[in-house]
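Batch job 17 of 40 flagged for manual review because the log was empty.
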Amino acid sequence: MNGACITTTIFTHPCHVKATSLLRRGAGARTIFHITATRRSLFVPSPPNLSGQHSRFCHLTQALRSDFRGLTKGVGVGVGDASTQEEVKNILRLAERASMWREVIYTNFLTPPILMESMMALEKFSDVKVVAHGGYPQAERCRLSFSHPDVLVNPSDVVAAFSITGNFGFKPCSHGDFLGSILGTGITREKLGDLILKGEKGAQVLIVPELLDFVTSSLDQVATVYVSCTKIPLDAIEYEPPRTKTFISIEASLRVDAVASAGFKISRSKLSDMISKGDVRVNWKTITKNGTILKTGDMISVTGKGRLKIGEIDSTKKGKYAIELILYL
């Protein structure tokens, strides 16, 4: 046999990396990295006869891991529920992997709360460069790409777009109609970015590039309207600020069932039924409790009704709340 082989295995979320050094007579060591999926935390064993090169490598990975542990500590405190906090931590773990191995990694489309919290956390880490991709400057849902600053560039193929056209003049369709039909092809929501309604012209949709051909060839109907789908360049996105109506509502509490029923002009009992059916979301998260307390900046979405944003909140002399409600038309 011409040489010996020493294998060091490093388990790190979400990749499992084997560093294999092939030692040959008369030649230096060559390191090969094999990446497979695992969910285990970082563990660096110390096998005997480990070369100095591998020792330095292990110390580096341990140092990086320590930095990211400090970064993820306390993430999401006061921002969203436990699932939101865990999503942000998963994104930070991906960033750890990208920086350590100098890979470029992309997330799916993220909701604004998760996007904002992730960006704020990643700004604290100097060895990770982050770029948000929404397809157009005002995008709400974006993908993140991250890697080591020496590696990451701003690629142009992270987000794709297509238009949906049909006879919508006789049968107007809502945001929910378009979204439901697209998801009906079998893809999941995180693969889609913003969905921009164009009235009689239909809609424009942002999507991950790898699913563009599948969706455009599969989607042939929205509600009762037969449609055609066409790939469009990102510079063809026609964004117009949404029309809104602002008014003040006096409420005894900041509970979501009280505020949203006033904002959408529906009964409180009907809204409670919609909450129990999973049709009400606060900051893009489905809620199940009527007593969820709202605050300034919260976005309420109700299936079939649209969106409502909470503006300024003031107290009245009678101990009630004067709530500024911004209804998206």
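Reviewer: the log was empty due to a logging misconfiguration, but the result itself is present. The chain has a mean pLDDT of 79. Unflagging and moving on to job 18.
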